Description:
The protein has 870 residues and is of the alpha+beta class. The chain has 27 helices and 32 strands. Helix 24 (783-787) links the parallel strand 29 and strand 30 (794-797). Helix 19 (682-702) packs parallel to helix 21 (724-735). The longest helix is centred in the middle third of the chain and has 38 residues, at 308-345. The protein is elongated and about 150 Å long.
Amino acid sequence: MYITDYDSGSIAKIERYIKKYSKSTGIYVCCLSAGRDLLFDFVCSQEERAIIKRYVTEDMIDEIFTRVALENIEDQVVDNTADENLKLAATAIRVNGRCRLVYIICGLIDDGTDCGEDMAKLERRNSFAGFLQAIDVLREVTADFSSVKMSAYHSEEKSRQSQDYAKELAESLKRASALTDVLKLLNSEKSFEVFANDFLSVTARYLATRHALIIRVLDQDNMDVISQWSMPGSTNIFDRYGMHKRLPFLEGNKPVIISGSAMPESVGIEGWDAAGVKALVAMPVYGRNNNDMFIVYVETDEARAWRVDELQFLADISRIMQNSLERRIQKNSLASSYASLGEILEHVGCAIVVLDLDNRIIHFENQIMKSLFSKEKINPELEKILWESHDSSAEIEFYDYTTGLYYEIHHSIISWVNGKRVRLYAIYDVTDKKNYQKRIEQQAYTDFLTGLFNRMCCERDLAKTIDEAKKSNKEGALLYLDLDDFKHINDGLGHQYGDVLLKDISNNLRAIKDIEDNCYRMGGDEFVIIVPPHAYDRFEEIIEAIKAVFAKPFYLKDGEYYCTMSMGMVMFPEEGDMVNELVQKADVAMYEAKKLGKNRVAKYVTGSTSDANKRLDMEKNMRDAASDNLDEFLVYYQPIVDIQKEGNPCVGAEALVRWDSKEMGFISPSDFIPLAEYLGLINPIGDHVLVEACKTLKYWNSNGHPEYKVNVNLSVVQLMQNDIVDRIAQVVKETGINPHNLTLEVTESLAINDMVRMKKIMAAIRSMGIRIALDDFGTGYSSLNHIREIPLDVIKVDRSFIQELAQDDYSKSFIRMVSELAGAIDVSICVEGIETEQQYKILEDMKVRMIQGYFFDKPMRYHEFNAKYM
Length: 870
């Protein structure tokens, strides 16, 4: 619209109406012609106008004006300003396709957040939805008015019609203002009764009716008066709320309009008839299930003809009422759901909290959460975890150092009752479970004799300490100790005093500062100490403290005894960052200390050509051989003879493993078997020997020697396997041997180390018909005391009693005693290590039956044995 399309009087009137409308709707409006002429500026105070123009520049107005007025693409545009809460909009008023007016509208959006100092000085505020609604109403009303207005400008009665159109615009703005007031009621948190009364007051005042009611139809005969409003000075139609006889015209789903002669004189309802109703309009409110509610406007002064624009207004407000009812129903449903869910979450037995992480809002906390983790009590670290985003749904473990409690935190993203995506946390107190686990771990990780941690615990802790050193860019050390000549104390004083010595040493090591919790017994007389990074600066002091432990005597039995140690040390991560690698290198250094004369400390040296490095080469080659079908591990057979039969016939053999390494040649069993046990390779090697020996036994028994038996050694590592019994049974089945001809040898020291478990395993093996032999008898703890507890069939006397048999009366007495004991408990006896005729003759007189040793024959390969004894 060009500036010449309106006279100055009309523009002034429009400005006055815009002033009222913008103030009631919380917006700021200025008006431009289609030619970009300013018809009137933002209608507000000078201070507010100055603030708006500080954030809404002429360039911004030019740009948004061009988009709606000239490009003919958009009629309405909403854009941002320099302040995120201040919105800028433009709406074009078109008549017959031609732009007539452009309104520039600003609105301060009140979303509950703090606004800047400038925005705080703007008095008018609105929600974003209200802002858009106000723009829509302004555009629709002005467009209708402008269409008529343009016709008037082209008629001869321009002045008179301009006044009429101004009145129409005023009426339109008045209606828009009333609609805006009704829309504002939608966000009211007041009760429905208060909302309904306010709703009737606003709408009835606009329509200028005497009375207004909200009525709900109950059934064919009754209705419920929910709310009623009357113009000041008038009496309500009904003297009370609640149930009344139903008005006959309140039915169906269409508006009811009655006026003048069409109004019945009486409907038989007290109060209604007395009011003298002259006109009414009843608008149905569409509910979810049926149309049982009506908004009724009543005129009692005179008959009234309802205008079309009034009926349109009534249709609009009935939809608003419907929307309000649905929102309140939904809100009540949400409240009910929230109450039900809250009741459930109060009784789940753990702390529950529901958080909106984006807006940092707590939607729900149960009483356990409030009591354990109130703002005054909550650990800051736990609070940080709760407000962080988590990529996975895995539970989180948390230890509260302030209370000493352990928590397990489960979390997941869920839809809350209001539809928002939130994170739900369930926090369980798992302190009792953790303490129980610690007790179990303590048992699993503790050496039963000394109370120190064991090898398993050492490997776990060393891995953690290596990581700590790497992360902190610091050093740590691993110390490997072996007692010098501990066997002498054991043999000289007895094993019980050997145990006392081990305990004393353990207690003294554990008393050294900074290694109290880093001392481990690896087995026998070997110990490991980890020097952690935080104590590495005291490394030399710790070494001297360890030496001091062994510099003083220990009180054992009835006197003082000295025990020295050899110790190897390796630094990490300088010399390696793998657990096994470091233990091996510390072990290498310890053996180097032994080689240098014992009672000293040696540091691991990279590239050393000592015998200890040969041990590392042996380990590598052993791993290679074990992974290559075990072909390098050969089974030899040493004959066992019965010297009580004529001709000392062979009655079987002991299967012995030998290693013929491709790289290192033939290696002694005393060198490689301990290493195989240490590396855990004894399991596949031992399994290989058992299978080969059983195959050989089957061949012997099936080819003329059904009486031949074979003995196979089982190591400590093999017997500790959980499936050892099943594996033996599988081999017996696969090879098809007679199990009575298979003897499995175990050492006495192994058997008594865990007597309950060993008795169970041996009993299971014997139940298959397999015989058990107690090997190396006489070298273990309290041999005679334990021999009656172990389920066995054969006692094998250790070769150490044979070496000095001809000269040592003790050895003769021992063997004679064991022979008589074996006869008393109905087990066989076998003596090994017979190398001379003199030894053989002595045993012959003692009625020993089974003998093996080099005097009769050496261990030999399968084909040699068959050629000689088959």
